[in-house]
Amino acid sequence: MHPRIEDYALIGDEQTAALVGRDGSIDWLCLPRFDSPACFAKLLGTEEHGHWRIAPRGARLCTRRAYRPDTLVLDSDWDTPDGTVRVTDFMPQRDRAPDVVRVIEGLAGRVTVHGELRLRFDYGSIVPWMRRSDGHRVAVAGPDSVWLRSEPPVRTWGKDFATHSEFTVGKGDKVAFVLTWHPSHEPRPALVDPFEALDSSVEDWRAWAARCRYRGPHREVVVRSLITLKALTYAPTGGIVAAPTTSLPESLGGVRNWDYRYSWLRDSTLTLQALLAAGYHEEAEAWRDWLLRAVAGKPADLQIMYGISGERRLPEYELPWLPGFHGSAPVRVGNDAVKQFQLDVYGEVIDSLSVARSAGLPVRPHMWRVQCALLEFLRTAWRQPDAGLWEVRGRRRHFVYSKVMAWVAADRGVRTLEEHPHLDGDLDGWRAMRAEVHRDVCERGYDPDRNTFTQYYGSRALDASLLQIPLVGFLPPDDPRVTGTIDAVRAELSLDGLLLRYDLWHTDVDPLPGGEGAFLACSFWLADALHLTGRTDEARELFERLVGLCNDVGLLAEEYDPVTGRQLGNFPQAFSHLGLVGTALALDGGEKAG
Known about the structure:
By secondary structure, this protein is an alpha+beta fold. Helices cover about 30% and strands about 25% of the residues. It has 14 helices and 28 strands. It is globular, with a radius of gyration of 25 Å. The mean pLDDT is about 95.
């Protein structure tokens, strides 16, 4: 059986991440960075495309698994007729080289464990040369070199272009495997002690989690979401990837398969608010500084996403040798949506920098100049049609959410000048722009017959992004147009009580074939909007249901299919976990949601 998306758990070292299945197999790992080619790509193909499985001989799935509390250290236990064994998976914080550590421990009886390591560089396309060197198995191909060792040493052998091992552990016995990557032209990096690294990793993660200020009834899932966001952070730059995977489908067997191993500006305000509200000011400052570096340049050249170091060129291409997750092809690397013009990102950036200033993060000398330059560009650009929040690959439209975010940009500029009158800026001009955008949206983006805002000017279609109208302050929560929009979106975009982004079958903005699942971030927005408009009991009920969709180790993908009960889309998804944290803070801590 091919694993489901929700069958995976995440381990990582804040520079890359791996997905570990219930069967003890690491099926996805990109080295040395999130956006590097995968050396284990079974997730999108077969065993021949690379994986690393360690499990009791003859066993299929682990009996139970869990992260050690407040850590990213994963324990998977197998109960067998011969006894019980645990495999502990983690990636220690790296000094120079990335390591994957797998510790096998006997808990009861005597259990024979089998390991199979099948390295395939460049997304499963390259079989490396294998050799032995100083007690290691060494794999080399092109720029990549991977070293495998065990402590204590166990016998390994090659078969069918894979490295196998087999050994028996009794109660209290421990065997550790360490997989280390480094550039093939460099000497082997220093060795890590796997057992010391395990203790240090547990201690470090727990110390980090203890900084969380949230003390509400959902602390466990909130901390798990924050740990996940921390794991998706590229520590050298502060950038946060939307997900560590590419091409996990929005519909099984479909073509809506995208590369999410980049940083989206649409997440910026949510990210800052979640980190700041939870007490993680250092991480918020690192994200804010990444944002400032990434957007530097001409305002007209602002992109919707960047690479984790701020790279701008993310060319999209397909990997025809990978059949895709459950046959969902094509498998894509890169993302052509980077070329789209989206008005909303201007609002997101300006709002994020305003949030950072209000929260007391250290002000950078050029921060206000960046905001002013973006606002001056928006003075005329806001009238243009754009591609919209969801990166649809059809023609440009006058999307209502995009215009609302242009209003947010002007509003935050005005507020900043009102609060900090010593700053230079065109207060009167921005006030006039704010009023003009507001009037335009209310006149052209609102359907008075149905008492709802619409997806784009002149459309009857709806969009879940309209729920942001009260959350960003465009209209007050008690405005009849707000409650009407919430009710309309809830009625027309509901999929068994959860929300679609938009109705694929009743809008002409999206030319791609096939469907998708309920979008989890939008469902959290609905809970936020319900709470903001006084329907807190309904908001709590929806939030509890959404929390219940987390897999057994607390992770969420991008989407969910209520019909099949399956998670869909790239995994784990930062946008979904940001939604969870924001809604929990709003419901339990009185913090602003959205």
